[in-house]
Amino acid sequence: MKYARLTKEQFDELNQEFINFLASQSITADQWQDIKKNKPQVAEDELDVFSDLVWEGVLNQANYVEHLSKNQLFLFKIDEAKMSLIGIKVENDAIDIRTKEGYRWLQDNLLNNDVTIYTSTKAITEDRNKDIFVLIQQGGNITKGELYQYFEKMIEVE
pTM here? Predict the structure, then answer.
């Protein structure tokens, strides 16, 4: 398995897609029940293959990843050749940028001495999707990039 198995909830959401996946391998509903009962390892392998296919589809479309914590914001823009980062750190423990009030404070105080903004760029490895998946495993979320674009306008990004 290249990525991670989908959760039960994700499989439930993708039930029709999983049925289509099995059908593409000429596996009927009855055959699937038989496989689950009599060949559990084959069933596990099918779940893993389907999970990887779903992840590949999602990661192929991903261009932005955000990771928020109480006092740090990591905004990634990913293209084919490089990954750009806008990092923001708030040194004031009273501020939680995950809250509406904390984020508003950040917007109003970008030039405050308690706020550090930095940028970085690194080359994508030969497996772009794996690079993105690592960010997700570390707590990142795929987004449409609104936050990245907002802060990109305020600072110079490489």
Answer: 0.84
